[in-house]
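User: Please fill in residues for this 273-position structure.
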């Protein structure tokens, strides 16, 4: 929020509304003529919609940013914030199937009304495809061992998947197993929700959606996301699209990580149009 340098009368985007924490903080800094447009494809996000005349919630993925900004009469805005990946709300609902610590159906869809559940996706993927996805989406070092044990298999629950991963790597230390389980869940979730395609679409639309001097700040939570944001910002800077970009990634402080362990892997990058 400090980087976004919020202007009271400006128009801003919260590209990942979720529980509405960022949106509330942005609205507090806006005056009566300010405007905030938020995006979220998860139907559950509607329950958190803010009762404020300055606020609009678009129930779609941020990959459609450019189109919906035009529809809402704001083709270019002063600032955009995106907090990528799964939300705490989604992780904490066992029935959504995102978390490997809880028993639940292996679903993982951010919009349960679209696409196919992770269980169905696993039944259809080949070992070769899954190995590549594990490497690309989560830098999984055991991809080649895990893929034949998970691909084209009938795995219906989160704990069943976690156990299948542990069985495939039974000789490994517990700490290594925990990290591998988390990485595999991440890789599958990214693929089921086509998250990289959506992020690439957002990064392409940013130059057209920001006013001159407008700012964008993006929080990522793993290397696959961070690489894409870093490369897009660097390319935009070389081409003169961005006047300034973050020289180095900004990480959560030790104190913040202690207070909120889920912030440990967070990385912030920014750019100015």
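Assistant: Residues filled in for all 273 positions:
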């Amino acid at each position: 929020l400090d980087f976004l340098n919020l202007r009271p009368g400006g128009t801003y985007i919260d590209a990942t509304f979720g529980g509405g924490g960022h949106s509330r903080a942005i609205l507090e800094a806006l005056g009566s003529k300010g405007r905030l447009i938020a995006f979220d494809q998860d139907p559950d996000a509607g329950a958190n919609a803010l009762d404020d005349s300055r606020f609009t919630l678009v129930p779609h993925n941020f990959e459609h940013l450019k189109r919906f900004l035009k529809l809402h009469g704001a083709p270019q805005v002063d600032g955009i914030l995106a907090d990528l990946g799964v939300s705490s709300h989604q992780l904490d609902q066992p029935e959504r199937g995102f978390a490997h610590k809880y028993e639940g159906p292996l679903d993982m869809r951010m919009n349960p009304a679209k696409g196919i559940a992770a269980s169905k996706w696993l039944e259809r993927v080949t070992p070769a495809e899954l190995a590549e996805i594990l490497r690309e989406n989560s830098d999984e070092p055991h991809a080649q061992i895990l893929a034949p044990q998970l691909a084209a298999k009938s795995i219906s629950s989160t704990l069943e998947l976690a156990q299948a991963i542990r069985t495939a790597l039974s000789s490994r230390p517990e700490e290594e197993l925990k990290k591998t389980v988390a990485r595999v869940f991440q890789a599958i979730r990214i693929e089921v929700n086509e998250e990289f395609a959506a992020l690439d679409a957002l990064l392409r639309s940013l130059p057209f959606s920001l006013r001159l001097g407008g700012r964008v700040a993006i929080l990522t939570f793993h290397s696959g996301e961070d690489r894409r944001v870093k490369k897009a910002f660097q390319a935009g800077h070389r081409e003169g699209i961005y006047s300034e970009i973050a020289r180095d990634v900004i990480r959560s402080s030790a104190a913040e990580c202690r207070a909120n362990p889920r912030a440990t892997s967070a990385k912030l990058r920014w750019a100015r149009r």
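For context: The chain has a mean pLDDT of 94.
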